[in-house]
Amino acid sequence: xxxxxxxxxxxxxxxxxxxxxxxxxxxxxxxxxxxxxxxxxxxxxxxxxxxxxxxxxxxxxxxxxxxxxxxxxxxxxxxxxxxxxxxxxxxxxxxxxxxxxxxxxxxxxxxxxxxxxxxxxxxxxxxxxxxxxxxxxxxxxxxxxxxxxxxxxxxxxxxxxxxxxxxxxxxxxxxxxxxxxxxxxxxxxxxxxxxxxxxxxxxxxxxxxxxxxxxxxxxxxxxxxxxxxxxxxxxxxxxxxxxxxxxxxxxxxxxxxxxxxxxxxxxxxxxxxxxxxxxxxxxxxxxxxxxxxxxxxxxxxxxxxxxxxxxxxxxxxxxxxxxxxxxxxxxxxxxxxxxxxxxxxxxxxxxxxxxxxxxxxxxxxxxxxxxxxxxxxxxxxxxxxxxxxxxxxxxxxxxxxxxxxxxxxxxxxxxxxxxxxxxxxxxxxxxxxxxxxxxxxxxxxxxxxxxxxxxxxxxxxxxxxxxxxxxxxxxxxxxxxxxxxxxxxxxxxxxxxxxxxxxxxxxxxxxxxxxxxxxxxxxxxxxxxxxxxxxxxxxxxxxxxxxxxxxxxxxxxxxxxxxxxxxxxxxxxxxxxxx
Length: 579
Known about the structure:
With 579 residues, the protein is α/β, with parallel strands linked by helices. The protein is 63% helix and 10% strand. The chain has helices at residues 2-6, 13-45, 50-98, 102-108, 110-152, 154-201, 203-208, 212-238, 240-265, 270-312, 373-378, 403-409, 424-428, 437-446, 450-453, 473-485, 503-516, 552-558, 560-570; strands at 332-339, 350-357, 362-367, 388-393, 396-397, 410-413, 422-423, 463-464, 491-495, 521-525, 537-542, 545-550. α6 (154-201) packs antiparallel against α8.
C-alpha cells in the first residue's frame, strides 16, 4: 500500500523533502529561544546587565524571525507537496479506471469509485501534509525539548518523561479503539453517494411517481449511518483533549511547586525554572500534536487502503503481446460460447452459443428481458470476455486484436443512450474526432437526425446539456446512431436503440443502412418484430440460448416463440404510429 501511494509523489519529491527540513530548522530555533530567555533572567535582569539583555534580546528576535520564515516555507512546500500528491493520485486512479472492463467497474460500483476519487483522496492529502509538517516537527521538537530539559535539571525533567509515557499509553488505547469505526465509515460514504447519484440521475422518474418522500427517507438513513459512526469515533477522539490538558496543567503545577522549593534551597535559578516551564509547554503541546497526527493517520489508513485497491486493480481485459491491428471484414462467428458476469456464478448467462454471420448481413435479435441479447453483442467489442469458447470477428478471435482497434471497428449504440455536455458537433465527433461538418451532417441524414437538428436555433452548434436532458429520447437515440456511423465500423450494433422513435422513422433508418453501408454487418436488437422482419437472419434468444436462427419466413414456420411474438404484435390494428 505505501509503495503504491508513494509512487505517486513523483515531481513533488523535492517539496516533500524541503518541508521537514524547514520544520526541523523551525524546531531548533524554538528550542534555543527558551535558553536565551533564561539567560536574560539570570544574567541580565537578576544582575542588572542591560547590555546582556539587549544582546540576547536581539538574538531572540533574529531566532524568532528565522523560525517564522522556516514555518512559512514549511507550510508553503507542505501545501505544494500534499496537493500535488492528491492531484497525482486522482489522475492515476482516473487513468486506471479508464482501462477497467465492465466487470472491474461492477466490482467497485460507480458510487464507490466517486468516493475514492473525492473523500478518500482528500483524507490522504490532509494526512500527508500533517505527516510532512507535524510528524517531523512534533517528535523532533519533543526530543530536543526533553534533552534540553534534562540538561537544565534532570530531576524536574523526569516529570515530563513520566507524563509523556502515560499519555502515550492513553493515546495508543484511543487510536486502537477508533480505528474500527473509521474502517466502516467510508463504506457508508459509498452508500450515501449511491443514494444521491441514483436520485439525481433518475429525478424525472422520482417526480413522475411522486417518490420524493421515499428518496428523502432513503438518503436520511444513509446519512444517519455515517453520522452514527462518526459520532462514535469522535466521542473517543474527544477524550484526547481533556486528558492532554489535565497532564499539561498537572505538570505545570508540579514543576512550579518543586521548582519553587529548589529556588529557595539554591539548587535552581529563576531563569532555569522559566526555561523548564517553557519546555514543559513545548513537550506537552507537541505530544498533543502527535495525538492529532495519529487521529488523522488513523482516518486516512482506511482511505489509503481503498485508493490502493483502485490503483492496484488490474483490468480483466488487456491487449495481447502482439495484437492484430486490422479487422479484415465484418464476419462474425460464435463457437461454443459460454459467458458469466461473475466467475463463481452457478448458471452462465449465455450457454453454448454457436452462430455464423457473413460480413454485410443484417441480423435481427429478438428475445425477452434477461434472455441474453445485450450480453451476446457485448462480447463482440470485448466489453466482456467469454468464459469459454471463442468469438470471431473478421476471421480472428476478438482477444487477438488491439482493444482500440476492435472497439473502433465494432460500433455499439447502447440501450441507455448517453450524450455529453457540449455542442451537437462535439457529441458527433466522439465517433471520429477528425470528422468534418459535412461528414457529421451525412451521418445525421442516415440516422434521420438532421430533420430535428436543422429546426434548432443554433443547428449543429446547439449546446447539449449533461446527459442530453434538453433533447427527447428519440432525438438522443438518433444522435447516438449518427455518432456510431461516423466510426465507419465493420460491425454496427444497435442495442434496442430505436425503441424511442416511431416506426416510420425506424423504417427510414433501416433503409438508409441497407443503401449506404451495405458492407457493414448490422446487428439490431429490437422488441418490435417490424424492426427486424426484413433482416437477412433473425436470432431468437431465450434463457441465454439460441432458440432459433433463420429468416422471418423460416422462423414463422419453425419457431413457436417468434411466431407468438409476431402474432401478438400484429393481431391488433398495428403500431400506433401507423394508425
